Amino acid sequence: MTDRRRRIAIDDQRFLLVATIEEGQNLSFYAGQMIAVEKTDMRPGGTEFDFDVHSRPTRGGVAENIMTNRTSLRDEFIERRVKTNVRGLLISPGNAVAVLRGKAPPELTYGELQPQVFRSRHRTDPVAWTINFRRAWYAGQGSKTVRRPPQAQWATVAQKAGRQANGSASAGAHGNAGPAPGQADGGVGLPTLDAILRLYVREADLTRYRPSPRPFGTGDMIFDQPGIFQRLGNMLGIGG
Amino acid sequence: MRGSLLPLPLLLALGACGTGTAPDRAADGPPLEAPVTGPSAYAVFAAADLDRGWDVLDAMDTELPEAQRGRIQARGLVSGASKEMMVRFSGTCARDGGFVAAVRAVARRRDVSTVRCEATLPIA
After folding, report:
1. Which domain holds residue B113?
2. Which of A53, A83, A195, A240 is the most exposed, fewest CB within 10 Å of its CB?
3. Which residues of chain B from 15 to 74 reach within 8 Å of chain A, CB to CB?
4. What is the ipTM of this complex?
């Protein structure tokens, strides 16, 4: 069954459901400065979600491209990374580090695990957002609760796993993922098919919402900036 | 002895002047977003209101054949300013593998008669 909630209230703000995102997929969209993301998995037990939320400013109504080097980008990524789960940590180690270093992660303004409110630091109107739902691990009741026919499920899981292998290849450079948690809990340890992220925007921001047909970042310039000793080594023809 | 060390500051200065390596995104791709692997397209329909639109989108969880259900990537509003809803799926409009027809069947059961396929979303 699907969670039918389409209107939620957080504090005094009213939010409307505008999109759902399947596992292994991403969604780029324009919205206001604040969004809410809800992790949904209707099966009993726990599910761990690995997703991240990014925002970037807009200029002339479209997302700005970024020109940066890999080091800055990695810092940016750590700063913004959010990894959480239904019954576990409220704040990821990466975010904890960001807080300790004086960098503000996306504000988790809501004291509960779901939904989470994300508030962008960018003040443009609209703000460009990307939600990247890498994968989820179901650590619940094990194979007894798997509802789908085994053949069909394995086929689809293999397809999704293939997509994720591609996805995580790009994320690997940024310290992604690590070992799959939850396998010791009797779960099958495979990506689940029923984990969905639900995206809400404030009712007042509804007219700002529109998904982008293309992911943001396709015009980014990202380059390596070798250090002085690496340059010296290159000039002398030693090292890689 | 001093003379033999002279080239070192020169080398350091030259090294600092050099440009970095060329932009290289093929090495690990766009870092912030997972790459969209394979083509995707949109099944789009107009709903009388958002609730009815979500009724159609939610019904796909239970009423689409398993093979088609697994091709859904994202669902939701085409924009906050319109009442059109979309399903992004893996495939193209030319080779949708019966996806749009399956969505159309689900939509018809909820009094939505027209479902069209779009290669991309209109940029507002």
Report:
1. 40-118
2. A240
3. 15-16, 18, 20-25, 28-37, 50-51, 54, 57-58, 61, 66-67, 70, 72-74
4. 0.71
